[in-house]
Specification:
alpha/beta
């Protein structure tokens, strides 16, 4: 089977995330991804999936593949990437997350607006459920449920001083059933491993965690046969000649 190199950024936000800039709308995200030479991106808003299909529609007719995803917040306040390659599976995950979120309304003046938009970036509605909060799920529950739905769960920006494994737990649990960890774009993989030697036990990836267009990056490459979650699993575990290259 022929393998291909896919340049990826699997962690970015749209205007649905209240902390994202107003420029994070579908056509501008797609334009920036193509300008960076990316082949595959994942839309991963905080606890929400409602702008994914708009970005997918904006990418229609281009070479860019757009995966559905989410950056979920566990009850330990650890952020976890939840990646899927099927919108139905992402919708099923959204239903579980909705049931696990507290019944709180967003305060736009305090947290920022949460905007659902169309493929052109035009306003459709404001999402009123508070997204910048923890779900009732533990870290282990998120990993298990995403896996059961056929997705991949990757703890986010583990080196950050907030909302990360290292900031919240102080270490990476050795029994945590994940295939990879994400290091933020603020330092290199080598710098992260030098500072936290325990990280070398895991496959490490880098994404932009973009809240503005300038934060999208092109550092992680997947050598895979096709852009699918099955192939991502092989790459993260370096099986069947699939692999991850960062740099």
């Amino acid at each position: 089977m022929t393998l291909h190199r896919f340049r990826v950024d699997l962690h970015l936000h749209t205007v649905l995330s209240p902390c994202a800039e107003v420029e994070m709308i579908p056509p501008l995200i797609v334009r920036q991804a193509l300008a960076l030479g990316l082949d595959l991106i994942a839309v991963t808003d905080h606890n929400a999936t409602h702008n994914i299909q708009a970005v997918q529609a904006a990418a229609a007719g281009t070479p860019l593949v757009v995966w559905p995803g989410m950056e979920v917040q566990t009850r330990e306040e650890v952020h976890v990437l939840c990646l899927f390659d099927d919108n139905a599976r992402a919708a099923a995950w959204q239903a579980l997350v909705d049931a696990a979120l507290p019944p709180l309304r967003n305060d736009p003046d305090h947290f920022g607006g949460q905007f659902v938009v169309d493929a052109t970036g035009d306003f459709i509605r404001e999402h009123t459920q508070l997204l910048l909060t923890s779900t009732a799920f533990s870290l282990e529950e998120v990993v298990a449920q995403v896996d059961e739905l056929g997705g991949v769960a990757i703890p986010c920006h583990v080196d950050r001083p907030t909302f990360s494994l290292l900031s919240q737990l102080g270490f990476v649990p050795p029994t945590l059933n994940v295939l990879a960890l994400e290091v933020s774009a603020r330092l290199t993989i080598a710098q992260a491993v030098s500072r936290w030697p325990q990280l070398q036990r895991w496959t490490l990836i880098q994404n932009g965690d973009a809240h503005r267009l300038s934060e999208m990056i092109n550092r992680t490459c997947l050598e895979i046969a096709e852009p699918s979650i099955a192939e991502l699993r092989l790459a993260l575990t370096h099986r069947e000649q699939r692999r991850v290259v960062v740099g």
